[in-house]
């Protein structure tokens, strides 16, 4: 990135999570430095990178936290998710186990992250067509059922990497700029009788979600 | 008796006989059908009975499950147990009954049908055949022509034979029929009687069973009446439930209660600026909220309460009118601002007035402990208290109940680098000395970091005055300040005491040999508890503090074999070696600071009345410095729980190193005290003039801080840093304290150093930065800490509004909490992460 990214309108923290070896670090290096390394080492703790993009004429700076997938290289878990507004949950389309573990990662997000965190399911290594073990339709269906966006990428040949980050950041931007999210989404059960109902317009979340995987 | 037929008639084969036979046959057939039907139905009954019993026992089993529900209600639990027992007994009886039914009714009747009736039927076939043969013989005989006498003769023979055969068969047949008819009555009746007996037994058993339990259940039903009465009362009370709505509203709006608690919407300060509903309350000058949202869903898996504002006295509250939402107000402290939303205008004004009142009250009643929350003793709410330290605990440290300088009562201030408490006047003088002499904090107004608390714990006014006011008698021209004295007296005194250090004790000196002159060097300190030496030490303390140092100096002519070492300070008993006495096996003593077992260690050591400060010879030629600075056991203040003692999380250093007396000076003293993290001795070394930037030329140019880092002690590091130790000092290999703590995997120390702004980008002589070492060692926590700190600095550089990123602060706080509350866990994480790499680590300092 040539110029200094001194000025931005929004700073979004996005975490990259998923099993060890699915290509999180390469996704990040492809997006932020346009680099790819076939022999990259396991991430220890967390690595950071930033890149700014434009959405609706606003500069959005993404602060991306690339976390260790391997349990023994992970620091205190809560650190990763604090203040994160987006998460790219990455699996390897050629390794079915990494897809099966997506549920576990979703659980971890639920336990530690903001309720409104935008999650995108990313099937990486789409270049490995002949080794594919996770059908696109299956993952897409899973994503729909869990309210996630979905995309397949290849950090190796750059397919969809830009789009993935662009989409999730746009989605976050839409939500944050709307500022009309209710928390928690379901109504409260125990509510004193003198509470005035708070009028909340429907969020655009649902609409935005559809934009991701055309 | 039913009619039987005359044998005459049989022999005659009269129509009456035939009539009788056919009548009996139908009768028997009829009987057979009936019996078969009975057997079938009985089978059904037994089967359904078995099904019933099966379901019954399943039902009883389900009752067992129910019983578990009443574990907390002993009576109900008991009664249920008895009832279930009853039901199960009944079931057992029922099973027996069914068994009897199948054994009597089914078996006997089946036998009757199969054997007796079938015999008759079989014989009927035979009889018919014989009867037919007789008929044929009659016909043949009739047809025989008189012209053929041979034929006639033959026919007559056949006839007579078959006639006799017929007659016998007929008689047999009648016999069978008659017998069956005669037996059916008794047979069936006895069967049913057996069944009846079984039923009788069944009911009898049931009756006995019920009799046994009769009293018990009678009692229960009596209890039940009482319980029903209770229930009705409760129901009546509950009928008034809607009244409480009215009352609640009234009290909510009218009462000037300042114990407000309830739900507020809280606007998140980061991420999505979303609103969430949390339970807020005021407790102990803090604004606290529950991390559970109103659906009781847990958000974080740590504690369930968060402190929003630690000290309301530095906060202001104002309503917020801008923005979309109604009923909003803002709580502003010097560092942050929180937007909260109440449910109604009334609640808004209630909250604002309560907060304002709390702030006012807190400022006014600075000195009295203020309980804002009525049920703050409730277990789930006790958490803030557990995590946080109450300032009164500081006063429990020996000497701290009085100002360290003027002995004024109720000190409310502290000097965190000296480890003392002060009254407000003296604290003012301390401030004027400058922060390089004294860093003043408020006990009540400031937020205290764990490591500062630890330092305070280790020192205290008594210990510090033993060092800084050891020689008052020598200097009498200065007036000792008192609680009411003028400011000038205080100033002069405090300056003389801490800046000029005029009353400081002398350098520890060796003592005469008292017993045999063994040349061996032995360290007696076995890493025991701080207070362990009280019995031995108290005598020396008593004389040492009172009339001490009046010049009875020991002669120094005792030869160069004398050595000194620093008492290792460890309050917590975590023995690596077995103790001589098994007392330490008793876990209960782990919690008490004072145990006697170390006395056994020192049994044969003379307890010496030591004329000089800080001098205690325990083995003939070894001086253990710090023995008499160790205090009498005081109840470890509740500041840190027993699992969280001051030195918890610090590694066990080896036996304190022994050094010849020729090398005893303030710097060396501090250098060695840092290894064993003995804060009182470190304090003494500073008082004796240890130089902040000194490095040990004999030991790889290492600084005090290097030593403290190697010891693993967070509080020793903090103490050195508070007293101006150079944080980025490097040894001859270019390693800074951060390098070494990283290499050793001491997360809590790395955190501390980073908090004190240690230079993380410093490269050692071989070009390694702390991060390189952490990555090499694969220590995820330290890597994260280092990278995160750098990231934060980068953001800080670019941002217009300087100051730390909220997320960064939160994450660092997580690490700090984790390090403070679960040091052991951190150590284990370390061990598994980095044990291997630590072996080959660059520091071979031990």
From TrEMBL, chain A:
UniProt KW keywords: GTP-binding, Lipoprotein, Membrane, Nucleotide-binding, Prenylation
Keyword Membrane found: yes
GO CC, one annotated term: cleavage furrow
GO biological process, one term: actomyosin contractile ring contraction
Main location: membrane
Coiled coil ranges: none
Subcellular location: Recycling endosome membrane
Entries under InterPro entries matching the protein: P-loop_NTPase, Rab_GTPases_membrane_traffic, Small_GTP-bd, Small_GTPase
The UniProt record lists the keyword Protein biosynthesis: no
GO molecular function, one term: GTPase activating protein binding
One Pfam short name: Ras
Topology in the lipid bilayer: Lipid-anchor
Family statement: Belongs to the small GTPase superfamily. Rab family.
Protein's name in the database: Rab11
Organism annotation: Drosophila melanogaster
From TrEMBL, chain B:
Keywords annotated in UniProt: ANK repeat, Metal-binding, Repeat, Zinc, Zinc-finger
Domain annotation PH: ranges: 257-360
Entry keyword Metal-binding: yes
A Pfam family of this chain: Ank_2
PROSITE patterns for the chain: ANK_REPEAT, ARFGAP, PH_DOMAIN
Ranges of biased composition (kind: Polar residues): 831-846
GO molecular function terms attached to this record: GTPase activator activity; zinc ion binding
InterPro entries with a match to the protein in the record: ACAP1/2/3-like, AH/BAR_dom_sf, Ankyrin_rpt, Ankyrin_rpt-contain_sf, ARFGAP/RecO, ArfGAP_dom, ArfGAP_dom_sf, BAR_dom
The Arf-GAP domain, residue ranges: 388-513
GO cellular component: cytoplasm
Domain of life: Eukaryota
Coiled-coil regions listed in the entry: none
Mapped ANK repeat ranges: 700-732, 733-765
Amino acid composition bias (Acidic residues), ranges on this chain: 645-657
Region (Disordered): 580-606, 636-658, 823-846
Protein name per Swiss-Prot or TrEMBL: Arf-GAP with coiled-coil, ANK repeat and PH domain-containing protein 2 isoform X1
């Amino acid at each position: 990135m040539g110029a200094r990214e001194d000025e931005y309108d929004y700073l979004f923290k996005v975490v990259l999570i998923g099993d060890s070896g699915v290509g999180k670090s390469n996704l990040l290096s492809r997006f932020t430095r346009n680099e790819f390394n076939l022999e990259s080492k396991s991430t220890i703790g967390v690595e950071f990178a930033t890149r700014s993009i434009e959405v609706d004429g606003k500069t959005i700076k993404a602060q991306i936290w690339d976390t260790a997938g391997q349990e023994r290289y992970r620091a205190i878990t809560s650190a990763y998710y604090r203040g994160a507004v987006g998460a790219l949950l990455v699996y390897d389309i050629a390794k079915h186990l990494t897809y099966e573990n997506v549920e576990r990662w979703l659980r971890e997000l639920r336990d530690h992250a903001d309720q409104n965190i935008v999650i995108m399911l990313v099937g990486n290594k789409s270049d490995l067509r002949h080794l594919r073990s996770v059908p696109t339709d299956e993952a897409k269906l899973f994503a729909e059922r869990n309210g996630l966006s979905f995309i397949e990428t290849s950090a190796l040949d750059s397919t969809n990497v830009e789009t993935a980050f662009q989409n999730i950041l746009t989605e976050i931007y839409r939500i944050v700029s709307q500022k009309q999210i209710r928390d928690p989404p379901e109504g409260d059960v125990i509510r004193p009788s003198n509470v005035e109902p708070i009028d909340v317009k429907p969020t655009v979340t649902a609409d935005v979600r559809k934009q991701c995987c055309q | 008796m039913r009619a039987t037929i005359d044998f005459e008639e049989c022999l005659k084969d009269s129509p009456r006989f035939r009539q009788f036979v056919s009548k009996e046959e139908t009768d028997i057939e009829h009987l057979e059908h009936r019996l078969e039907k009975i057997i079938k139905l009985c089978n059904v009954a037994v089967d359904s009975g078995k099904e019933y019993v099966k379901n019954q026992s399943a039902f009883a089993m389900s009752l067992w499950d129910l019983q578990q529900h009443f574990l907390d209600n002993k009576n109900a639990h008991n009664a249920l147990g008895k009832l279930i027992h009853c039901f199960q007994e009944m079931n057992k009886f029922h099973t027996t009954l069914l068994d009897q039914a199948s054994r009597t009714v089914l078996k006997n009747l089946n036998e009757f049908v199969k054997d007796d009736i079938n015999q008759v039927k079989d014989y009927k076939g035979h009889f018919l055949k014989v009867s037919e043969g007789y008929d044929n013989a009659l016909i043949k005989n009739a047809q025989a022509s008189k012209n053929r006498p041979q034929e006639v003769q033959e026919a007559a023979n056949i006839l007579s034979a078959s006639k006799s055969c017929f007659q016998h068969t007929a008689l047999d047949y009648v016999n069978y029929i008659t017998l069956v008819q005669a037996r059916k009555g008794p047979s069936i009746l006895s069967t049913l009687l057996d069944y009846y007996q079984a039923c009788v037994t069944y009911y009898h058993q049931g009756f006995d069973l019920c009799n046994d339990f009769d009293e018990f259940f009678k009692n229960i039903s009596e209890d039940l009446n009482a319980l029903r009465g209770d229930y009705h009362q409760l129901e009546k009370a509950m009928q008034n439930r809607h009244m409480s709505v009215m009352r609640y509203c009234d009290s909510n709006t009218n009462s000037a209660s300042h114990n407000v608690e309830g739900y507020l919407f809280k606007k998140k300060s980061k991420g999505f600026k979303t609103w969430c509903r949390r339970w807020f309350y005021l407790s102990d000058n803090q604004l606290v909220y529950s991390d559970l949202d109103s659906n009781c869903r847990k958000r974080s898996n740590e504690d369930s309460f968060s402190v929003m504002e630690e000290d309301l006295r530095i906060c202001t509250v104002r309503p917020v009118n801008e923005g979309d939402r109604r009923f909003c107000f803002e709580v502003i402290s010097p560092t942050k601002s929180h937007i909260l939303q109440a449910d109604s205008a009334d609640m808004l004004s209630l909250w604002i007035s309560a907060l304002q009142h709390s702030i006012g009250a807190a400022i006014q009643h600075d000195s009295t402990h203020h309980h804002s929350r009525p049920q703050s003793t409730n277990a789930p709410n006790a958490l803030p208290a557990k995590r946080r330290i109450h300032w009164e605990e500081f006063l429990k440290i020996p000497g701290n109940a009085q100002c360290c300088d003027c002995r004024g009562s109720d000190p409310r201030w502290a000097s965190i680098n000296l480890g003392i408490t002060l009254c407000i006047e003296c604290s003012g003088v301390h401030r004027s000395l400058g922060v390089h002499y004294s860093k003043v904090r408020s006990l009540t107004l400031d937020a205290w970091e764990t490591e500062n608390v630890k330092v305070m714990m280790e020192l205290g006014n008594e210990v510090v005055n033993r060092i800084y006011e050891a020689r008052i008698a020598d200097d009498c021209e200065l007036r000792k300040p008192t609680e009411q004295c003028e400011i000038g007296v205080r100033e002069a005194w405090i300056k003389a005491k801490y800046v000029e250090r005029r009353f400081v004790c002398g350098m520890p000196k060796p003592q005469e040999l008292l017993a045999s002159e063994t040349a061996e060097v032995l360290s007696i300190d076995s890493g025991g508890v701080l207070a362990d030496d009280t019995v031995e030490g108290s005598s020396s303390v008593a004389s040492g503090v009172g009339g001490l140092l009046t010049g009875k100096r020991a002669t120094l002519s005792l030869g160069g074999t004398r050595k000194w070492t620093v008492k290792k300070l460890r309050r917590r008993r975590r023995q690596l070696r077995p103790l001589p006495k098994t007392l330490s096996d008793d876990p209960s003593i782990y919690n008490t600071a004072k145990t006697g077992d170390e006395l056994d260690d020192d049994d044969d050591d003379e307890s010496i009345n030591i004329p000089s400060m800080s001098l205690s010879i325990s083995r003939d030629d070894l001086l253990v410095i710090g023995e008499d600075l160790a205090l009498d056991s005081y109840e470890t203040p509740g500041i840190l729980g027993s699992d969280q003692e001051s030195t918890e999380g610090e590694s066990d250093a080896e036996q304190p190193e022994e050094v010849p007396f020729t090398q005893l000076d303030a710097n060396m003293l501090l250098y060695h005290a840092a290894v064993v993290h003995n804060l009182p001795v470190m304090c003494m070394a500073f008082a004796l003039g240890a130089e902040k930037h000194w490095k040990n030329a004999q030991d790889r140019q290492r600084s005090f801080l290097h030593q403290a880092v190697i010891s693993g002690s967070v509080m020793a590091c903090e103490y050195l840093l508070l007293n101006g130790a150079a944080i980025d000092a490097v040894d001859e290999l270019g390693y800074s304290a951060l390098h070494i703590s990283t290499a050793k995997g001491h997360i809590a120390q790395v955190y501390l150093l980073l908090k004190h702004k240690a230079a993380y980008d410093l490269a050692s002589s071989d070009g390694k930065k702390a991060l390189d070492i952490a990555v090499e060692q694969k220590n995820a926590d330290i890597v994260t800490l280092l990278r995160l700190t750098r990231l934060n600095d980068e953001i800080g550089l670019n941002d217009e509004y300087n100051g730390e990123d909220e997320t960064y602060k939160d994450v660092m706080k997580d690490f700090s909490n984790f390090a403070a509350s679960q040091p052991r866990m951190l150590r284990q994480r370390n061990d598994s992460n980095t044990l291997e790499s630590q072996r080959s680590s660059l520091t071979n300092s031990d």
